[in-house]
Amino acid sequence: MAARKARGEVNVPPPSPGRSYRQIILGNIFSFINNVFYALCVLLVLLGRPFDAILPLVVVLANAGVSVFQEVRAKRKLDQIALLTRPTAKVVREGREQTVDPGEIVLGDVLMVGSGDQIVVDGTVVGDGTMEVDESQLTGESDLVRKRAGDGVFSGSFCVTGGARFEAQQVGADSFANQVTAGARAERRVLTPLQREINGMIRLTLLVAAFLMVVLTVSAVAWRDPFVELVQRLVVVIGLVPQGLLLAIVVAYALGAMRVAGQGALVQQTNAIESLSNVDTFCLDKTGTLTTNRLKLADVRPLGIGRDDLRSRLGDFVASATTGNKTSEAIAEALPGERQPAIDEVPFSSARKWSALVFDGNEDGAPGPPTAPHAGDAEGRTPDLPATRSLRGVYVLGAPEMLRPHLLQGAHLNGQVDEWAAEGTRVLLFAYRPEPVSMNDGDNAVRDIDGLIPLGLVGITDELRPQAYETLTAFAEAGVDLKIISGDNPETVKALAVQAGFDPEAKLISGPELDRLDDGQLDAVAVEHGVFGRITPEQKEGLVEALHAQGRYVAMTGDGVNDVLSLKKADLGIAMQSGSQATRGVADIVLTNDSFAVLPHAITEGQRIIAGMQSVLKLFLTRTFFLALLIIAVVMVGTFPFSPRQSALLSFLTAGIPAVALAAWARPARAQRGGALGRIASFAVPASLAVTLIGLLLFVVYCVPVFQVARGSVTVGEINATLKDTLPRAQTVVVSFLTVCGLLLVMFVEPPSRFWAGRDEPSGDRRPAWLAIVLLLGLLAIAIVPPLSGIFDLRPVKPLDALVIAAAAAVWVFLVRLAWRRRLLERFLGTDPES
Q1: What mean pLDDT is predicted for residues 312-333?
Q2: Which of 298, 243, 365, 363 is nearest to 660 (CA)?
Q3: DSSP structural state of residue 288
Q4: What is the pTM of this model?
Q5: CB burial string 753-780: b at 16+ within 10 A, e below
Q6: What is the set of domains in the chain, with CATH numbers?
């Protein structure tokens, strides 16, 4: 093995998912907007204005630094999750089975795979094992492919049923493994409604900033303004783009992921927690999700043979299978049997719902066709026959509904199926055909066997997961539409679901009934029904697509390979930690303690994220709107309202710090579907218009001497002297006023009392209010301490100026409260439903 590793014949591990540390650092520091900032700051330095460049540059680098820190922390968390969910491999070395990392596999290793395992290198099946493989990620075809000795297997596929050994023949770069193991999660990049809103706002403000930059450039050329002034103005304008939104959402996602991680949920997609709060339809698989997947043999009912004979044959059947599952393990535990040599085998498949073995032994006491009830036996049981020493014929164990069409004509099941199903017991039919025939039809497919004789019914009980009742009840109270989707009998599924708190009036339907529906009917049935039984993996996927067609935001839980397709189709995929590698690999959230009782808490965290980010969006949209309007208005008057340092102070105090705090302190709130941007705009537009009008009035009043001088017969030198004294004071007053309004806006976004509540109820959380007060005190310190004022290109505020600023802010508060409470904007636009 060492020699093969030295020759490079080793399976190189796949690259870590997501961006590398280098990509994270470069991506955050050298984004498009940041690069524009850097170029403009360099120009300011070259033009002799280094102080105008330093402060905006510090703000940009601080935002980038926090973004890098948060994303690196998130990457480390995801890397830990990747180690937990990364597939392992079982190899046979020196006659012993060993579990190794895929990166330790060398050319020529013999690997073992079983149901649910991922095939991590290419090779050829060896030995007697048989398995069915899902190669849909390679071929796009969802049909299972049967593999026997001599057949090739490919990395990136999954063993669905059965088990086998294969020899590694293509490893490292020569196989599909490196692409598939890293690509399973990379394929799931679903933007949440919140992310789409934020992306839309950033693009809109970028468009506005680009428009203003063009206008200012043309104006500067036309009026021959100094180049340094143009660069200063461009720095201010590019600052309109709300980069802090990206930082705030990174913080919100990281905090949400950390909160739910402590309760048993590992987040594999950073937006998964927020996505969960948008879910209005929750699809749950019964086995392994609603139940613990710990099965127990409840009872067996013979049909035409003795009980002891049935128990003996059933025990020998499960003991002779080369592959097993939870059901066969429960039967084997209750009915130990002797292994018999089988000449053919069909492993259990979630699509077929049955498994089969073919024996060619010399059987004594073989049962005949079903007989009439024995005289004197009210239950129709015949006297026990001697246990068979060897089996002969085709033996099948599976769902009664799937095997009933293949039973010998005249066979009946005595109504026991419905009775057990109504009690929540899973029912299996054990049947046989006396003649041994091959189950392979020659095209690598499985042949259906007709003429089966029923031998008995097998009852299996499931154990409900702890807190299942509380979880389903919490979802129902939250208005989430629950769907139970399972491969078991619909009546059995519903009976168990009702025990767990599911609606007893929910409609149920079976997979064969779904097959008879067209697409339009399926869409309606998917919404109207709550319990789906005997569902194939393809039907699960189809149900998710049908719910999407009805505008539903769908979450899907699962633990088996048969759930992979539907998990990938859903808006949010949730897997159990004890589930298959394939399922964990495509899931957005992995439940580490195998309990989905954590999901209501995760929904609360998602609602917290949405509420926090919508508060942040209100801040940024209002700020961007009034700054853009004020720049346009003041430029029309004939000058420019801010310098780069003043703009940096305004951005830092009114957006940077409050945005991160609001994202961290957010309270859970029910997600409102549709119109979120409209609701935010109805908040931001009145506030922005009021700020702009009052700010423009202050600027004009303080610059009146300049305009008077400009209209008189004076020299350019006199105009410049007057402007040098008056403009900085006007800018100081306006910037201070805007900052005060921006901080008061924090209290409107998260109102501590009824007075500050525009339309919403008071939050009761006084932390945002205290933050605003602390920042106002910081602004006051900057305004009255000359060295601090100079750093931000401001003049010390005089007492009269402070009174003017306070009065103007009070007028603004009155105007926005009036506009919000009387819905003036909605009435003007004609969109107010109450008007």
Answers
A1: 89
A2: 243
A3: I
A4: 0.64
A5: eeebbbeeeebeeeebbebbeebbebbe
A6: 31-75+190-258+603-829 (1.20.1110.10), 89-186 (2.70.150.10), 266-291+486-599 (3.40.50.1000), 298-464 (3.40.1110.10)
